Amino acid sequence: QVPLVESGGGLVQAGESLRLSCVARGPTFPGSSFSRTVMRWFRQAPGKEREFVASIGWNSILSYYEESVKGRFTISRENAKNTLYLQMTNLKPEDTGVYYCNADIGGVVVIGKAPGRYWGQGTQVNVSS
Questions:
Q1: What are phi and psi for residue 71, nearest 5 degrees?
Q2: What is the distance between the alpha carbons of residues 97 and 38, in angstroms, rounded to a whole number?
Q3: CA 12 to chain centre
């Protein structure tokens, strides 16, 4: 069973918005373990390496963004639902790619781009000009 499942991707025009979700499930996240997990979003554009987008700490107090998405993207989480979100506004064609959520169970570093152990399968975002 895949421990992280993303959804919410799609095709939009530049300037529009999308909200991505990532649900953590199964034996990888027993009990309240999600609430002790640093979560991150990454993306991979065609022909490029996967890159960091945003991260959020256990209790949502700390978050960290890649420079190009600051002011346009907002990462958030609902621990009671084992769910991570990425609200994306004012989307640009260069935001096109597959978006992945990533989990660092027990991790404590939020201001950092290094991924944790667990990945989802990704959701495709296409932004047309």
A1: 85, -10
A2: 22
A3: 18
